[in-house]
């Protein structure tokens, strides 16, 4: 079975530009029955404590699928 790699991201809305940004905070790796989560950073400021997980088939700073 091959490894599956996902990006761990947080949606952030800009008040000034009325745009949505996606901040990447780490990766999640699924290898068989093992799941590993590697976080590089934590959000600061207002944050509800949640992350979104998306396959790595899109480029950084691009909106994840179905959002």
Number of strands: 4
Distance between the termini: 29 Å
Number of H/I helices: 0
Assess the beta-strand content as a share of residues: over 45%
User: Biggest sheet: strands side by side, in what order?
Assistant: 3-2-1-4
Q: Indicate the multimeric state.
A: single chain
Which terms summarize this structure?
4-stranded antiparallel sheet; mainly beta; 67 residues; elongated; 4 strands
Give the SSE layout:
Elements: E1 4-14, E2 19-31, E3 34-39, E4 52-55
Antiparallel strand pairs: 1-2, 1-4, 2-3
Summarize the structure.
The protein is mainly β and about 70 residues long.
Can you give a write-up of this model?
This protein is mostly beta strands and 67 residues long. The protein has no helices and 4 strands. It has strands at 4-14, 19-31, 34-39, 52-55. A 4-stranded antiparallel sheet has the order 3-2-1-4, with no helix packed on it. The chain is elongated, with a radius of gyration of 13 Å. The model has no long low-confidence stretch (mean pLDDT 83).
